Amino acid sequence: MRLDYIDNINEYGDDVVRLFEFNQAQSLEFRQLIQDFLDSGEEQLNFATIDFIEPRNCKLIFRISEEDDGITTDDKINFFCDLTREGYKKMVSLLDPFCKRETTGYQYLYDVDSPTDLLFSPGGTW
After folding, report:
1. Do 82 and 114 contact (CB within 8 A), yes or no?
2. pLDDT by residue for the chain (126 residues), tens digit each?
3. How many CB atoms lie within 10 A of CB 49?
């Protein structure tokens, strides 16, 4: 599984942090990672510490927040995904289709009005 950032993906100037190049087994592992994060009581999950995720041009940290703010950055290298526990639970359920079978589809992992989306796409496309 690879992690990267793509600037200006459309005419609206939106950006995307993308998890891509993965299979069903890695989808299961990623879903379990998020579930373990929620169960641990920790306040943040740094993707730099996850062996099966290879960062290309950015870093990502999931943080528990009081509001669903989505992804923010100050430098377009270090990204923070701030969601409530409920927001991360919804994310876990959005991962289900990727965990049940191999697929070429894609899914945005939250529905927040933010200039940067989080894309989960085995083939890297949207």
Report:
1. no
2. 999 999 999 898 899 999 999 999 999 999 999 999 999 999 999 999 999 999 999 999 999 999 999 999 999 999 999 999 999 999 999 999 999 999 989 999 999 999 999 999 999 999
3. 8
Q: Which of 96, 97, 98, 121 is nearest to 108 (CA)?
A: 121
* pTM of the entire predicted model: 0.94
Q: Which residue ranges make up each domain of the chain? A: 2-121
Tokens standing for residue 11: 């005419």
Query: What is the topology classification, in CATH, of domain 2-121?
Result: Gyrase A; domain 2 (3.30.1360)
The token pair that represents 4 in the structure block: 């990267």
Contact 59, 12 (CB under 8 A): no
Closest CA to 120 of 95, 100, 101, 99: 95
